[in-house]
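Action item from last meeting closed. Structure (512 res):
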């Protein structure tokens, strides 16, 4: 890959690209003036819906181990020793018969004597593989299209999930390796989504289309938590991985049959909708070349604002995603079905809130109430700072189960607002390279997925209230730092290096 010349290093995001804005007017103004094609039964919203279910499956595959871990681990002795050491800080519920004792499942499924540190390593293993394929997946999806990478990523992860019970039986090392391979397969999915929307999403519909599709992640977590609990208790924990894996394979069939990389090649799209999408996006909807302006990207302040903010936001998100069932079990002492349902509740709110935030963001842009930069910063602040306040509150709820669940639910629900903020900002600053940029930001953003379960394993290894308070306070502090960083340095303007390739090709045409 050729390196960019680096002339687009920008220290002031708000004043960035004045010359480029003039050059882009010819391409970007039609996006505002083009008559919108109907949304109902359209190809672009059908794609958003199919992506929604795809990411629901993806997150089901990602979080099923978090709940199943409660059923897989035989820690009766450790529970008894912890009860003695912590003095029964939070008493078990009177109607809860499963919180302090675990027995074999209905099918005699095995239990494993994994320590909290081992559980943390296994929950973080997924992200070791997830780190590897983000950037190459985003680059290749931007060059060749995202259809095969998104569909193949889900299919590969689902197929590997079917092998989870066998890997657990073979040993911790095998299960760790399998989860890392699952992350390896799933790592290409989100960059591929961004690359596809760079070709499919009209600028004034980006927020809602991308939040609809991305909201599948929260919906998948919402469904996976309680369904996993029910399956564990009724069929045994191995059935969780067979059912989730099978669902992913089935979804992949529909994806490859119904989806096209580009509206130009979609066999069932209407002519008005195709013209609307193509004319709205302009030349920025085309594939990027083999060479990309790496040096310019490395020194782009708005890009680093996205990277740092997403890392900070993901610390809290992954902490709750992987460790909330453990908190519900070891501190609040909910049984498996209560645990799985209450762990899911926050993600129902996040799903609804993220979709509503996307609609609201597009409404503000359509009415020209504020700039893209202002919209992204407002939704990012709302989605990080307010949830952090509720996480702090969770740390001081002590044994009040109702109050703890309420604060956790409100924190994750309001956090959905950031879906219309920093999490789609890549397509604002560089539409053509959006898939590659998401690969970069997601790579950095996945680091908390590796570290946070391990940190929880050490901070809360004694399952004490003080240990979990430190977990929540750390998450809140990291989120607030990320929000302030993005507020200071984030931008919604397209960057000069994002159109270098286009400008150079135009100059070549003029010369000839």
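Sequence:
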């Amino acid at each position: 890959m050729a390196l960019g010349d680096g002339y687009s290093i920008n220290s002031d995001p708000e004043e960035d690209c004045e010359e480029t804005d003039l050059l882009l007017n010819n391409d970007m103004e039609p996006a505002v003036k083009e008559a919108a094609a109907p949304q109902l039964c359209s190809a672009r919203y059908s794609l958003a819906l199919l992506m929604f279910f795809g990411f629901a499956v993806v997150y089901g595959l990602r979080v099923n181990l978090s709940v199943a871990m409660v059923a897989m681990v035989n820690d009766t002795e450790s529970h008894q020793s912890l009860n003695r050491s912590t003095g029964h800080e939070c008493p078990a519920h009177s109607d809860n018969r499963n919180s302090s004792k675990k027995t074999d499942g209905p099918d005699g499924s095995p239990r494993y004597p994994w320590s909290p540190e081992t559980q943390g390593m296994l929950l973080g293993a997924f992200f070791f593989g997830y780190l590897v394929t983000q950037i190459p997946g985003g680059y290749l999806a931007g060059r060749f299209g995202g259809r095969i990478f998104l569909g193949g990523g889900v299919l590969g992860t689902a197929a590997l999930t079917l092998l989870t019970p066998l890997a657990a039986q073979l040993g911790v090392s095998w299960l760790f390796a399998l989860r890392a391979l699952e992350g390896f397969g799933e790592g290409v999915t989100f960059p591929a989504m961004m690359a596809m929307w760079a070709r499919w999403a009209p600028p004034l519909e980006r927020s809602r289309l991308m939040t609809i599709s991305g909201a599948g992640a929260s919906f998948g977590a919402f469904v996976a938590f309680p369904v996993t609990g029910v399956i564990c208790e009724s069929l045994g924990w191995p059935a969780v991985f067979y059912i989730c894996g099978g669902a992913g394979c089935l979804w992949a069939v529909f994806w490859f049959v119904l989806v096209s990389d580009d509206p130009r090649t979609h066999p069932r799209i209407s002519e008005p909708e195709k013209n609307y999408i193509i004319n709205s996006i302009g030349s920025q909807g085309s594939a990027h070349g083999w060479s990309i302006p790496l040096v310019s990207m490395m020194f782009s302040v708005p890009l680093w604002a996205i990277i740092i903010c997403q890392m900070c936001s993901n610390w809290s998100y992954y902490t709750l995603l992987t460790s909330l069932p453990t908190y519900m079990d070891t501190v609040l002492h909910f049984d498996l079905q209560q645990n799985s349902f209450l762990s899911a509740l926050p993600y129902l709110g996040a799903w609804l809130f993220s979709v509503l935030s996307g609609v609201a963001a597009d409404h503000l842009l359509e009415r020209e109430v504020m700039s893209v930069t202002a919209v992204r910063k407002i939704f990012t602040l709302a989605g990080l700072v307010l949830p952090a306040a509720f996480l702090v509150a969770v740390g001081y709820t002590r044994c009040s189960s109702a109050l703890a669940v309420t604060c956790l639910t409100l924190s994750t629900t309001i956090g959905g607002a950031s879906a219309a903020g920093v999490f789609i900002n890549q397509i604002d600053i560089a539409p053509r390279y959006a898939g590659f940029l998401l690969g970069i930001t997601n790579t950095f953003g996945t680091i908390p997925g590796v570290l946070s379960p391990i940190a929880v394993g050490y901070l809360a290894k004694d399952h004490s209230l003080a240990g979990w308070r430190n977990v929540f306070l750390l998450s809140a502090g990291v989120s607030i730092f990320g929000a302030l960083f993005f507020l200071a340095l984030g931008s919604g303007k397209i960057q000069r290096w994002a159109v270098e390739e286009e400008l150079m090709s135009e100059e070549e045409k003029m010369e000839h």
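Note appended to the action item: The first helix runs from residue 18 to 33.
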